[in-house]
Write a structure and sequence with these properties.
The chain starts with 7 loop residues before the first strand and ends with a helix. It has a ten-stranded mixed β-sheet with strand order 10-12-11-13-14-19-18-17-15-16, with helices on both faces. Strands 1-2-8-6-4-3-9 form a seven-stranded mixed β-barrel. Strands 5-7 form a two-stranded parallel ribbon. It is of the alpha/beta class. Helix content is about 25%, strand content about 30%. It folds into two domains: about 10-150, 3-Layer(bba) Sandwich (Glucose Oxidase, domain 1); about 160-365, Rossmann fold.
């Protein structure tokens, strides 16, 4: 395996900030909302996470690609990111179990990226100025042409993307003889969430995003799971109505990330676009019920209004972010429903919060 000579690539941000670097993945031009992930490992899981659909991912870790690609370390059937930005990109890999290089993986997935730029400066810029759209190109260097391409990239605020990544047909995961039947709403479900459910005795039927409540209930589920996913939750009126109907049944309900936001919206609690979001494996969250701190994996650009949670007499605030005091978990006081903003399934980690799946199982056992 040898190093690959690379073409020049450029990055233009919405506010006019411009970087030069070297091409990785496939040559071409791509755009999306720029966001950064602080995880030290798990790049393959990040790139296949449907919640990143429509986004260009910036890895803050200095070296990317050095442990290669392993087929089972995916969160969905394909790479979901729109583009990739890294500092040092490795064409070679050292893990003996890896089956191919990251470069080959990105090429086959048609992903356009850029390396060899000052990612530290770029992250500091986004943290200061906020999330914004960007374009990566190996084809154009003229700022006017790049601005024209960038103008065509949709704004994430008000964008419905969950139906774009959802399954087109229902499918089953787990053993039909398992103790619990769980209806999973796929708004961008991650593979490791399903693994956590099935390993605890759940037989899951995964439903497309726009499935009617009546069709879901025909399966007679003993639990509802509302998945993570991309886009603005506030415009997903179809999903909000479905969650409202689920709550009326009082069948146990568990939501993660986008699912957490949809549960809040179903309770009349608004969401908002964050300045630059939370994405990484090291976010501290306090469980307000136990008093314990959890180190969590997160990936979201929208959040639930903490003021409205506190004003809602039917909703309890259960978890809070210790960095910026945003809402990380809620529970309905008179219903069998709860949700968290972060990812307790967390692959490759941390695993501090996997007890939440046990809580869901316990809720179904007691019903």
């Amino acid at each position: 395996m040898t190093y690959i000579p690379r073409k020049e690539a450029v990055l233009l941000l919405e506010d006019g900030t411009f970087f030069k670097g070297l091409s990785i993945g496939k040559p071409g031009t791509t755009g999306g909302e720029l966001c950064f992930n602080t995880g030290m490992t798990g790049y393959q899981e990040i790139y296949t996470d449907p919640s990143y659909y429509g986004q260009i991912v910036l890895n803050t870790t200095a070296h990317i690609g050095n442990y290669g690609i392993l087929p089972e370390e995916v969160e969905s059937a394909s790479v979901k990111i729109s583009g990739l930005i890294v500092k040092t990109f490795s064409d070679i890999y050292s893990r003996n179990r890896a089956q191919e290089s990251l470069q080959k993986y990105l090429e086959k997935a048609g992903i356009i990226g850029i390396s060899n730029l000052d990612t530290r400066a770029l992250v500091r810029h986004v943290r200061s100025k906020g999330a914004m759209n960007a374009v990566i190109s190996t084809e154009y260097t003229d700022p006017q042409t790049l601005r024209s391409v960038l103008a065509e990239v949709p704004n994430m605020n008000g964008l419905e993307l969950a139906s774009s990544v959802s399954t087109k047909e229902p499918y089953y995961v787990g053993e039909p003889t398992a103790p619990f039947k769980v209806a999973v709403m796929d708004y961008g479900i991650k593979t490791n969430i399903l693994k956590q459910l099935t390993s605890r005795g759940c037989y899951c039927k995964v439903f497309p995003a726009h499935t009617s409540f009546g069709e879901i209930m025909e399966w007679n589920p003993e639990g509802f799971f509302i998945s993570n996913g991309p886009g603005d939750p506030a415009v997903m009126t179809y999903a909000i109505e479905t969650v409202k109907k689920m709550l009326e049944t009082n069948i146990p309900l568990f939501g993660i990330c986008l699912g957490h936001q949809l549960l809040a919206l179903a309770c009349g609690i608004p969401t908002f676009k964050m300045h630059h979001g939370h994405r990484g494996l090291n976010h501290p969250v306090k469980n307000l019920i136990t008093g314990r701190c959890e180190i969590t994996s997160q990936n979201h650009g929208f959040s639930v209004s903490i003021e409205d949670v506190k004003k809602n007499e039917e909703v309890m605030l259960t978890h809070i972010n210790l960095n910026d005091h945003t809402v990380e978990g809620i529970k309905l006081k008179n219903k069998n429903a709860f949700s968290v903003q972060y990812h307790p399934e967390a692959a490759p980690g941390p695993h501090d919060s996997r007890y939440l799946f046990d809580d869901f199982i316990s809720m179904m056992q007691k019903r």
